[in-house]
Model the fold of this input.
Amino acid sequence: MLTAVFHSHEAAAMTNAHNTQDDWDLILAKLHLFDKLKLVWEKSRDWVTQDLLEVDTLYELAVLAAVFGVSWLLARRLRAVLAPRWAEVMERGGRRAQWRRDLLRLLDPVISLVFLWPLYLLSSAAGMDNDLLTLFANAVGAWVLIRLVTTALFKPFWARVFAMFIWAIAALSIFGLLGEVVRLLDAMKMTVGSLKLSLLDLLESLLFFTILLRLGIRAGTFMENRLAASGELEASTRALIGLLGKTVLVLVVGILSLEIIGVDMDMLTVFSGALGFGLGIGLRTVFSNLISGVIIMVDKSIRPGDVIWVGEVFGEVTSLRARYASVVTRDGQEFLIPNEDLISRQVINCSYSSREVRIKVPIGIAFGSDVDLAMSLAEQAAADVPRILKSPPPGCRLVGLGEFAINLSLRFWITDPEHGVSNVTTEVLKRVLKLFEKNGVEIPMPQQEVRIKSRAAEEAS
Done:
């Protein structure tokens, strides 16, 4: 009992000692940062009041003005040459167009760097004062690097956010404050269970996770595009490999990020059970769609390029994703149908075992018309349409006697339902009307016979 109490007090004392040391580290980091800010302010003030009008400074300013002026003129001429050549690509949109637009915008700073860095190296080798040249060379270089990285990895909004973050780091480095800020962030610690993390650890983990995640997604997209260009694999197999590849890349990125901040993987395996249970409840639909998507891709019941009916939606499956299938209708509308619906609901796949689809078109003729002639003319009209198969040939059947018409059913087969059903039906009916009109087959019109009797006639009868 006494031993347990002793160990408890010893652990508490060690914890207090660690906390005290952390507090002292934080205080010292704040003092160092304050001293550094004061030094930067004094040097900036002295430079403005004493060095700004010196000959060396004026010489640097003149060189910088000449560099930026010449760079602007050259960029303007080069932009006038490249813009017409790239106009067609930029009008089509996409990543290639975005890259060309960004390159046209970056011509000025890139050309400036071509002049600034050689001048910086020559002035340094000659022992000349080049503080301004160094400052502008670093700033322009950081600007170009930030724009290239953010354009390659992020969408416009996140590109601006990430650029602001990198600009803050670059500015701190240029003014010599980066080391002190890093020391201060490292001194700001927090304890999560048995793991002690600093704010610097969290920021580094977030930065690495963001960059690695975007690289993983880009790699997955590149892999999907390469698979799509390959004709050796089926569309469903390519979609499955792309989905599994992206999932594995995201998992690897997450594990690497946790390793960077020093999270114990053994502790994570214990925690993952409870976390997985909570996520399973909260994200049940998401995981259901994910598993349904894998099942669809494995059993190949629905593949990209298939023509399907789902409820009121009829169209071509353009892609299979982790959460949904994209179906484009004939009027250009794109429906994103959850994968779970494709398994739980009735789906008519016109392309599952065969791409041949039979279409039935009802036709009515007036009583008194030659039924055999009308059936023959209807079959002839269908046979003349290029999209309709010759084998099996179109057929017309007598299906009923209606109140006002003799009901026929014209049946024919097509192999390209993704090109539309209504349009081929319209073409057939137009030909049927022309042949009926030419051969005297009447289209029925509702008729009613009205008899008028007078009262005198009734009394006489």
About this structure: The chain has four domains: 12-192, 197-282, 295-349, 357-439. Residues 1-18 have pLDDT under 50 and may be disordered. The domain at 357-439 is CATH 3.30.70.100 (Alpha-Beta Plaits). The chain has 15 helices and ten strands.
